């Protein structure tokens, strides 16, 4: 992967059914990364939970998924949906492959998504993941049109997980 490719080489590619095998593999990498902070071991067959592809392909009209492309390289994915509260949308899942982290790819991708869908956003993350915490606070501060509100919320049905940090912001 060329980490130094020009700024204009990042693209969001809308998920289609044809992306199923790619998303399944990326999903496993994503959950492998999360397992460090979430204490989630793989199942007996060596895999983590399966990706719910249909919900991001029109089965639930309030959800969208995108592959991230950095030039010709696959860079990760972002999944967005309608928030359960007064926000218009929320970032459900966000993943950048390790080889492209800390090179601006994730920040550009997150900014693209937040500004491509202007409105009120909710972004949740775990404080115990310091990379994610710094990343999302920086992205939110850079894209918010009228400030960022930070809250803490318990994770539903998972009392053993520390509360989520929730950022609320509006983009244009």
Structure, explained:
By secondary structure, the chain is of the alpha+beta class. It has a single domain (7-171), classed as Gcn5-related N-acetyltransferase (GNAT) (Aminopeptidase), CATH 3.40.630. 26% of the residues lie in helices and 30% in strands. The chain has a seven-stranded mixed beta sheet, sandwiched between helices. The radius of gyration is 16 Å and the shape is globular.
- Give the % helix: 25-40%
Query: Approximately how much beta-strand content do the residues carry?
Result: 25-35%
First-residue to last-residue Cα separation:
32 Å
**What's the total number of strands?**
7
- Poorly predicted tracts of residues: none
Keywords:
alpha+beta, seven-stranded mixed beta sheet, Aminopeptidase, globular, 172 residues, 30% strand, single chain
Could you provide a short overview of the structure?
The model has no long low-confidence stretch (mean pLDDT 88). This protein is of the alpha+beta class. It has three helices and seven strands.
How is this fold's topology laid out?
Elements: E1 10-14, H1 20-38, E2 64-70, E3 73-81, E4 89-96, H2 105-116, E5 119-126, H3 130-143, E6 148-153, E7 164-171
Parallel strand pairs: 4-5
Antiparallel strand pairs: 1-2, 2-3, 3-4, 5-7, 6-7
Helix pairs in contact: 2-3
